[in-house]
Design brief:
heterodimer; A: mainly beta; 2 helices; B: mainly alpha; Arc Repressor Mutant, subunit A; 2 domains; 21 helices; 51% helix
Chain lengths: 353, 443
């Protein structure tokens, strides 16, 4: 009916203008409290010296683009997944492949190592997250014991175990995140609020361990309460898709990497962005970010095949690393901070220290 | 009649991931400026002379524009990989080399951000002539004109045109087993319909603090500075650098931890608890006052456990820690106790949250500091190892050959589970009846 349409349009415009006014008011409130930038606060901190970071291991074995990787708590093993459906568990120290699984789908964009070291989770275009218990018996067929845990209505973009092997947190192209019970496959909590694909997530390293942050194609980074499913904080300063989010080691801040070629740092207590890591000469998107153990260094993997290392406090780039022959798709620092690993579309993984 | 292909659309219309293309195009246009751009010249290639050929000057121009030399070669390679510049020799390798290699700017017609798609039908045309396709008219006509007028054109123009077209197809249909910059991930969906207004209203209400609270970040960095392997050397050595895994072995759940590790326990209660060896030491200190930590551990097990184990765990916790006269009764305030016991009627994984936080804060603010001043901790500090830094100058190759496999995490996990089970059995509330009947049977 014509009149109904007119009414609907009016409501929409009204909502839009209300949304804009509220947004401006929120920015004003945030700006009132703004007194110093992070690099000003950090003026007295001494600068960093020269770094010698090189590739210490190259892991070859994937037949196609490496999309994701995760470290085991033992600080030397990793799990990686690729476009052709292969998930491989390596002892990165010796470069031996220990387990390999072939998923029934391509583009396995998410994989995670269980805290106990006894299982791995992975998923991608199959819209699911499955858990494979690992075995000491090399001949055992891991696919036989596979457990299907999460079910989304679109691709799985990221997954992570919580503090135990019993729960998994997932994010998906269907715009939601969800918490699942591994044993039963039951959905424990779902998180709605992103307006487009959710591409990444990270759990807070806090004493309570009850929050996590997610980033999506709607350029927003949202912080969620795992108990209630509510979005408790939201940040929208990026100009394009947010490909990666990672908490600062203390849990009081987090960093994000986006297709707009910048990395940004958000302080959770000040509720605002406190630093931007960018250069005019860097115009290709960031696929993945992670902090060094103390939080002083921020490592970013970029789509122009390089890795940039940033001084978190001063906001300057301290190093640029070359080596991969295609875009760097994933980057994680090891649990004890002794090295970081990168995975790339050039089919290899590299360990840097 | 239109022909549809089932192939995924590789066009550049609405792809936020190719955000960089706008910036790239702007720079390429600048590079071709008559006055301030890159200078081209005529070069002889095989038998013909090609106009507007560029070489290493591109790299110098980029370095000047970006005011940085670190990534000029990378940036140049990106321009070639995406097809804005193409190499005249060695045309299959899409990289920029800092030598005498020759390049040309690609005609804008073939730039990657054009609206039309590089379809298979076009590729077929490139190889063989096919019937007319309505939506490819421009391209067909252009090709046809070239072919018809080709003989009249000067050889260099023809060579140039062939090069341009060939370069376009190398970028969009990369040869097998090569990496292509034009690869994209799976399609991302965008649907911008939200109800954000409630969220903004709440956000405005929420209290905020001044940005100088970011001092906390500086403080954290300063505290952990010497423990960051990228900033200070690991003792005895970083396993990835020396190929020797002593560092990992020394930091397992060993009797004698290292000095750095013991120092780290003093940074925060959370650090002490997170390191299982630290937790062991804390338990030694607690001796009899053990119930708070045991309750905290049990509450963690409940929070992160399987959904099916919830009610049994809740019951055990009630009997052990909360019931009147329980063997490990925890001393929490009446209100919290009341809320918790009531919640246990319908147990869920966060039912112990209030009690757990209370107990945690108690330990963090009181017990932890007493621990740091206690003889137990001071003994540990004295006993702690300070490993000598390794000096593997001549031995590095040998180390690389003999990398040890370490203990598999599955084995470690099984060992830990066994220990936990033993400890739980020893600490379980004593069943008096069973004890009495055992004694009776012995008699």
């Amino acid at each position: 009916m014509a009149t109904q349409e007119v009414q609907l349009n009016e409501t929409l415009t009204h909502l839009k203008t209300e949304s804009e006014t509220l947004k401006t008011k929120l920015e004003e409130e945030r700006a009132k409290l703004h007194d110093v930038e992070l690099h000003q606060v950090a003026e007295k901190v001494e600068g960093l010296g020269q770094f010698v970071m090189k590739t210490r291991r190259t892991l070859k074995g994937h037949g196609n683009k490496v999309l994701c990787m995760d470290w085991c708590k033992d600080k030397r093993r990793i799990v990686s997944s690729s476009q052709d459906g292969k998930v491989i568990v390596w002892d990165a120290f010796t470069t031996n492949k220990e387990h390999a699984v072939t998923m029934p789908c391509t583009w396995v964009m998410a994989c995670a190592y269980a805290p106990s070291g006894c299982a791995v989770a992975c998923g991608g275009l199959d819209n699911k997250c499955s858990v494979y218990p690992l075995s000491l018996d090399k001949n055992e067929n891991l696919a036989a014991k596979k457990k299907s845990v999460a079910m989304h209505t679109n691709y799985l973009s990221a997954c992570s175990f919580t503090n135990s092997d019993m729960q998994i947190l997932t994010s998906s192209g269907d715009g939601t995140c969800a918490l699942w019970d591994v044993e039963s496959g039951q959905l424990l909590q779902s998180f709605h609020g992103h307006a487009a694909d959710v591409l990444c997530l990270d759990l807070a390293p806090s004493e309570t361990g009850n929050t996590f942050v997610s980033g999506g194609c709607d350029k927003k980074a949202n912080v969620w309460d795992m108990r209630s499913g509510q979005c408790i904080q939201s940040f929208e300063t990026h100009e394009s898709d947010i490909n990666s989010v990672r908490y600062y080691p203390s849990g009081d801040a987090f960093a994000s990497g986006s297709d707009d070629a910048t990395c940004r740092l958000y302080d959770l207590r000040a509720d605002r962005e406190v630093a931007i890591y960018s250069k005019e000469s860097i115009i290709f998107g960031v696929s993945s970010v992670d902090f060094s153990l103390s939080g002083r260094l921020l490592f970013g993997g970029y789509n122009d095949y390089t890795i940039n290392v940033w001084d978190v406090l001063k906001g300057t780039r301290v190093s640029i690393l070359f080596g991969h022959e295609n875009r760097v798709s994933t980057l994680r620092v090891s649990p004890d901070g002794t090295a970081f690993s990168t995975g790339s579309w050039d089919h290899t993984l590299r360990i840097w220290a | 009649m239109t022909i549809r292909t089932a192939r995924q659309d590789r066009g550049q219309h609405f792809r936020p991931r190719m955000h960089c293309f706008k910036k790239l195009e702007a720079i390429v246009v600048e590079m071709q400026d008559q006055k301030s751009g890159v200078k081209g010249s005529e070069q002889k290639l095989n038998v013909s002379t090609i106009p507007h050929v560029i070489s290493k000057d591109v790299i110098a121009w980029i370095a000047n524009k970006m005011k940085s030399t670190a990534e000029t070669l990378v940036f140049g390679t990106m321009l070639v990989a995406y097809g804005y510049i193409y190499p005249l020799q060695n045309h299959k390798k899409l990289v920029m080399c800092n030598d005498a290699s020759l390049y040309r700017f690609q005609t804008p017609y073939f730039w990657p951000a054009q609206k039309w798609v590089a379809e298979d039908s076009d590729y077929a045309h490139y190889n063989h002539l096919h019937e007319l396709l309505n939506h490819k008219w421009d391209f067909i006509v252009m090709q046809a004109t070239e072919q018809y007028a080709g003989k009249e054109r000067k050889k260099p123009d023809r060579v140039v045109f062939d090069c341009q077209e060939r370069a376009y197809w190398i970028v969009n249909r990369p040869p097998r087993r090569t990496h292509s910059a034009m690869d994209v991930g799976p399609e991302r969906l965008i649907d911008p319909n939200t109800d954000e207004n409630i969220f903004f209203q709440q956000a405005i209400m929420r209290s905020k603090v001044k940005s100088s609270v970011s001092l906390g970040l500086v403080k954290y960095i300063t505290t952990y500075k010497n423990h960051d392997p990228f900033l200070a050397p690991c003792l005895p050595s970083n396993p990835w650098l020396s190929d020797n895994d002593s560092y990992w072995n020394l930091n397992m759940r060993v009797d004698a931890p290292t000095k750095m590790r013991v120092e780290r326990w003093s940074f925060s209660f959370f650090e002490l608890l997170s390191d299982l060896r630290g937790r062991d030491d804390f338990k030694v200190f607690l001796k009899k006052e053990f119930e708070n930590l045991a309750f905290w551990e049990a509450a963690e097990e409940l929070k992160w456990g399987t959904a099916s184990s919830m009610s049994t765990k809740a019951e055990t916790i009630f009997r052990t820690f909360l019931a009147p006269g329980a063997p490990r009764w925890i001393n929490i305030d009446g209100r919290t106790m009341g809320l918790t016991v009531k919640g246990l009627d319908h147990p869920h994984r966060y039912v112990l949250e209030a009690a757990q936080t209370h107990v945690f804060l108690l330990m963090k603010k009181d017990t932890f500091f007493r621990y740091l001043k206690s003889p137990v901790y001071k003994e540990m500090q004295k006993k702690a190892l300070n490993p000598e830094p390794h000096n593997f100058q001549s031995q590095l190759d040998q180390n690389a050959q003999n990398r040890s496999a370490g203990i598999h995490p599955i084995i470690l996990w099984q060992q830990e589970e066994e220990e936990k089970a033993k400890a739980a059995a020893a600490a379980a509330p004593i069943d008096v009846k069973a004890m009495m009947s055992k004694i009776d049977r012995k008699k």
